[in-house]
Automatic annotation (TrEMBL):
InterPro entries: HotDog_dom_sf (IPR029069), MaoC-like_dom (IPR002539), MCH/BMMD (IPR052342). Gene3D superfamilies: Hotdog Thioesterase. This is Oxidase regulatory-like protein. It comes from the Bacteria. SUPFAM superfamilies: Thioesterase/thiol ester dehydrase-isomerase. Residues 21-135 form the MaoC-like domain. It holds the Pfam family MaoC_dehydratas. CDD domains: FkbR2. Belongs to the enoyl-CoA hydratase/isomerase family. It comes from Microbacterium faecale.
């Protein structure tokens, strides 16, 4: 008897449907350690992420999570469900915004909506997918949004 095997992968180009919303779970509770490590690894010396005393004197009253961590995390959350092993290239991000801050201890939830798909005119068997990634905190507030274009592999023959 042959053993059934399933390998987790992202979607082939042909599997993306415009308008479909993918919810990426589980969420990710962001800690102070996450924020400080990411901020220092990326050499972002912004006091709003590193200096508790200074940050307490801002309108936020505390340090905030580095917005690039938030963006990287919501894109990362989409990987196993959408692009793992099926992406050819990340083509770019546009319309990036951070409407509300993330705070230490907030939980980030990601979702991705398929905005557009088109076959590549120069790369047979591949296509471009446009995704709108949105991150929400535990209260449902949008904390990050970005539109991302990816070059995806078509289904193997």
């Amino acid at each position: 008897m042959t053993e059934k095997r399933i390998t987790q992968r992202g979607l082939w180009f042909e599997e993306f449907e415009v308008g479909v919303l993918y919810e990426h779970r589980p969420g990710r509770t962001v800690t102070e350690a996450d924020d400080v490590l990411f901020t220092t690894m990326t050499m972002n010396t912004q006091a709003l992420h590193l200096d508790a005393h200074w940050s307490e004197q801002t309108e936020f009253g505390e340090r905030l999570v580095n917005s690039m961590f938030t963006l990287a995390t919501i894109v990362g959350m989409s990987t196993s469900q959408l692009t793992n092993g099926t992406i050819v290239a990340n083509l770019g991000l546009s319309e990036v915004s951070f409407p509300a801050p993330m705070r230490h201890g907030d939980t980030l939830y990601g979702e991705s909506r398929v905005v557009d798909t088109r076959r590549s005119s120069s790369r047979p068997g591949q296509g471009i997918v446009t995704l709108e990634h949105t991150g929400r905190n535990q209260h449902g507030e949008v904390v990050a949004r970005a539109v991302r274009a990816v070059l995806m592999q078509g289904r193997p023959a």
